[in-house]
Design goal:
The chain is α+β, with helices and mostly antiparallel strands and about 325 residues long. The protein has helices at about 10-25, 30-40, 45-55, 75-80, 100-115, 120-135, 150-165, 290-295, 305-320, and strands at about 30, 70-75, 85-90, 165-170, 180-190, 195-200, 205-210, 215-225, 245-250, 270-275, 275-285, 300-305.
């Protein structure tokens, strides 16, 4: 006895079609068999639904269905290969869409995320990139994101954290001093495009923060770590103040305040200075200002003290000289 094909009520059929159309759009092309399996329906029901979609649409200004007012499919592939390919969409195409450049920028960002070691579901990212490419108003420019210099370091440190072993490395601090360290890796964190390692430094006998792009000659040892995360206090803030910190007065655009939140003391005063906000940041030494300020070009101006202004000005002048640009 053959299995009876279930019938759909009108409301069920409408709900099914509302789900079917966006599902087909997301997949670009899909077989009738796969569609039937996904929705738990027979292949003939799927074919009937596709035929209904092909005669659906929105009438134009004449209130009659003209060319372009109806959905359309690739009939040859539907009839010969049992594949569903929507070749013309109605109303959906009128919704705002990313430009080719916008889609390319988003795809480049997703490519960067896909390359990070902690991203496990790369399939979901690949699917999203494909949807962005198909949904853009024009073909996105082909872009590639080069792997960063810290990617290999990041992967090794993650392995050390997972296996609970000490690491050894050469480190250059912001003053340019070179030291060899061995440490118990505790936590990896990122701030904007920079990655940091919180670790128990056996040289200093305390928790220290290391920026990954200043680490070189990193090796994993066979020695187990001596300090676990629960054995030491790791504050919520990545950058901690100390009694030896220096305070620098800056003018900053309101949009950049959040980017400097880790450096602005909680009790720092804020005053309006034209279209900027005057406040202060806390740094371990004036040389730490150089990368902080140059990372926010045009958004931060160092007001004082003079030593801080001099450190940033000399850094900027040295960089400009490499391009043959004289002092302003």
């Amino acid at each position: 006895m053959s299995k009876r094909t279930p019938t759909l009520q009108a409301t069920d059929k409408l709900a099914f079609l509302l789900s079917l159309v966006p599902w087909l759009i997301d997949r670009a092309h899909v077989s009738v068999a796969e569609t039937a399996k996904h929705f738990g329906m027979t292949e003939q029901q799927i074919r009937d639904a596709v035929m209904l979609i092909a005669v659906s649409g929105i009438p134009g200004e004449t209130h009659q269905y003209q060319d372009g007012d109806l959905f359309d499919i690739a009939w040859d592939r539907f009839e010969d290969a049992d594949e569903i390919v929507l070749t013309h969409l109605v109303a959906i195409d009128d919704s705002p869409r990313f430009s080719g450049r916008e889609a390319a920028a988003l795809i480049a960002g997703l490519q960067y995320l896909s390359a990070l070691p902690e991203i496990a579901d790369r399939g979901a990212i690949d699917s999203l990139m494909a949807k962005l490419a198909r949904g853009a108003s024009t073909r996105p420019s082909e872009m590639a994101v080069e792997a960063g210099e810290t990617d290999a370091t990041l992967a090794l440190i993650r392995e050390a954290v997972a296996t609970g072993v000490q690491v050894e490395f050469d480190y250059v601090n912001s003053r340019g001093d070179h030291e060899h360290r061995h440490a118990d890796p505790l936590r990896i964190e990122s701030v904007d495009a920079d990655w940091y390692l919180r670790a128990w430094c056996h040289l200093r006998g305390a928790v220290r923060i290391f920026r990954l792009d200043r680490i070189s000659a990193l090796t994993l040892t066979a020695r187990p770590i001596e300090f676990q995360v629960g054995d030491v206090t790791l504050p919520d803030e990545l950058f901690e103040g100390s009694a030896d910190d220096l305070f620098v007065t800056i003018d900053v655009t309101p949009a950049a305040l959040s980017l400097l939140a880790d450096y602005i003391p909680h009790d720092a005063e804020r005053a309006t200075a034209g279209d900027r906000v005057r406040t202060s940041v806390r740094v371990s030494h004036y040389h730490a200002l150089k990368r902080l300020v140059t990372g926010l070009p045009g958004m931060v101006t160092v007001i004082g003290p003079p030593e801080a202004r001099r450190a940033v000005a000399e850094w900027a002048a040295a960089g400009a000289a490499r391009y043959g640009i004289g002092p302003a």
